[in-house]
Q: What sequence folds into this?
């Protein structure tokens, strides 16, 4: 009888110890799960950033058409709000589904978490997956042959097809695809225009080769064509129209777009001419 009682007491003690131990470690388990959850969120956010944001905010979040996001002073909630709603009357679109954008609330959250826990390494990883093939085609053509060959580098950046973000991981290509090969080529107005098109950030919206994007119409093949305006009026894209579209983007709005979507950089007349020549050279 005594022995039985002792056995029961011992058993109960063992149970108590187990339960206590479980309770003591539970917060730790929860913390680990939360940390893993957060890591996954950051990784997803990085992927979305590369796809949707880097062309305006820079491949390293350093800022381009839009401000730098790496080191943003907005807190997570502030970021979510801005990303979801966009900034009206600027190039910053609304990304949240409630605001007509493509992303669900948890994707907006992932983006905000990534921005607050910025990690360039994750961005490089994303770029590396897609870059090898394009890089190869690009580097294989110009280096040695470009000297005696055609002075106008119309062939070079054409190697970047659909990927809106320029190379992230591969070293030979600069983050912003400023066409590097023949500096002498900038003697032709159209080649100088190509450089401006890149350095002024036109490519962020109109694409490396003017092919257009979700946020801006194509300018390749535009010259001489009929353009339908938001006013339902139709105009021919002659030199005057192209000039006006660059220096006074709000004068005529292309159908399907809103005013103030395109910034107005300060340009000299000569630069505007060069941009127009470049656009006319794009077929
Ligand atoms: C077409 C260009 C463009 C794209 C694409 C774009 N942005 Fe922006 N973004 C801007 C511009 C321009 C601003 C500045 C708006 C203003 O004048 O306040 C901005 C502002 C912001 C701000 C506010 C920054 C601050 O400090 O006030 C955040 C946050 C932001 N963008 C996040 C994003 C995220 C995340 C994505 C991708 C889902 C994205 N943006 C895609 C152009 C863009
Ligand atoms: C932030 C995005 C953005 C940037 C950067 C930008 N554009 Fe635009 N651009 C647009 C949008 C949106 C439209 C259509 C709305 C309109 O007509 O203003 C447009 C329209 C145009 C048009 C008329 C297109 C047509 O189909 O009739 C031309 C030409 C043009 N842009 C040239 C340029 C040049 C050159 C640069 C660089 C100096 C530039 N854009 C920079 C967004 C941009």
A:
């Amino acid at each position: 009888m005594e022995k039985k009682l002792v056995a029961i007491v011992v058993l109960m003690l063992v149970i108590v110890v187990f339960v206590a131990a479980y309770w003591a470690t539970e917060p730790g388990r929860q913390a680990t799960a939360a940390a893993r959850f957060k890591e996954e969120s950051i990784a997803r956010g990085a992927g979305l950033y590369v796809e949707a944001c880097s062309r305006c905010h820079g491949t390293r979040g350093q800022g381009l058409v839009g401000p730098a996001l790496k080191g943003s002073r907005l807190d997570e909630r502030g970021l979510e709000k801005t990303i979801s709603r966009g900034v009206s009357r600027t190039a910053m679109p609304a990304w949240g589904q409630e605001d007509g954008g493509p992303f669900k609330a948890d994707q907006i959250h992932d983006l905000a978490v990534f921005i607050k826990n910025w990690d360039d390494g994750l961005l490089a990883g994303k770029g590396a997956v897609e870059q090898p093939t394009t890089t190869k085609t690009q580097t294989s053509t110009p280096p040695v042959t470009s000297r005696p060959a055609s002075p106008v580098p119309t062939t070079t950046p054409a190697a970047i097809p659909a990927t809106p973000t320029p190379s992230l991981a591969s070293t030979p290509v600069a983050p912003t695809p400023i066409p590097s090969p023949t500096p002498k080529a900038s003697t032709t107005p159209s080649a100088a225009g190509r450089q401006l098109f890149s350095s002024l950030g036109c490519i962020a919206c109109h694409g490396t080769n003017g092919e257009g994007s979700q946020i801006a119409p194509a300018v390749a093949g535009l010259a001489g064509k009929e353009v339908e305006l938001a006013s339902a009026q139709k105009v021919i894209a002659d030199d005057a129209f192209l000039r006006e579209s660059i220096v006074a983007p709000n004068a005529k709005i292309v159908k399907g777009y809103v005013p103030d979507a395109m910034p107005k950089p300060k340009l000299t007349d000569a630069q505007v001419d060069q941009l127009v020549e470049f656009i006319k050279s794009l077929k």
